[in-house]
Amino acid sequence: AILDGVIGGVGKPVAFVAVAEKGGLLMTITAHGAGGHGSMQSDQSAISRLVRALNRIERNPLPADLDQGTHLLLEFLGPEMPLVSRLVIANRWCFEPLITSNFAASPTTNAIIRSTTSLTGLESGFVANGVPQRATARIDVRLLPSENAEAVRERLEKLVNDPAVVKRQSQDDLGVLVEIDSVLDRNASIASVDSKPFHILQRTIHQVHRDCVVAAGLTAVATDSRHYAGLTECTLRFIPLRMNSEDLQRVHGVNERISADNYVEIIQFFIQLLRNVE
Description:
This protein is of the alpha+beta class. It has helices at about 45-60, 70-75, 85-90, 90-105, 105-110, 150-160, 195-210, 245-250, 260-275, and strands spanning about 1-5, 15-20, 25-30, 35, 115-125, 130, 135-145, 175-185, 215-220, 240-245. The strands form 3 sheets. A 4-stranded mixed sheet has the order 9-2-1-10. It has a 4-stranded antiparallel sheet with strand order 5-7-3-8. A two-stranded antiparallel ribbon has the order 4-6. The protein is elongated, with a radius of gyration of 23 Å. The relative contact order is 0.23. The model has no long low-confidence stretch (mean pLDDT about 90).
């Protein structure tokens, strides 16, 4: 999209072209514990264990990796930033922890530097005075291009199967299980910004949206480009949809919308793109 005021330190709107995207993975975390009457309090109930497990996952994010497309974003935007920021980016070997910390401070930018885990569902208990034997959480995991689904599952399992989470009551105590429900097919390639298609797209953006600076990087969402993964190594993802920070919060939410002027811009963009490709 065209991001206006979303990326700090850049005064112009950023026409963000995704040369790579994350994969999607759905996981289930199931905690087991002894059931019983609600009058008997236990810190080893299924729900108590699940709460601690989810807390550990939230407090221990998966590691950041700037080489999964974010380095490209920095290279494109560095010249548009103030002097101090340019110096930091130019000496990434020294300031990588600082860069990572700045990206991690916002959910929007944190999502492009690491694989993420988002809680999307909870299920447990049916009666008010009964302690359930199972408690289940659904986790939406978005994987960096290089990440392996099973490796992430093992990491989370090791994280939650800890004495701080589970004190097993017997050999039959199942504790907390982490399982993969489904893995979304994905396009794991990273397109080259030196390719002819990228240069055509870059030129088209500058022709139609003269107020923008073009940048490339990783998108945190899954796109339909996964269906083209076997046809080309150069997949570029871009729609000239203008979005600010408030618009980002509306995606899949309340009052999701597009302005009439921007709608016309998008049509103009695709007409120009077809002309340039010809």
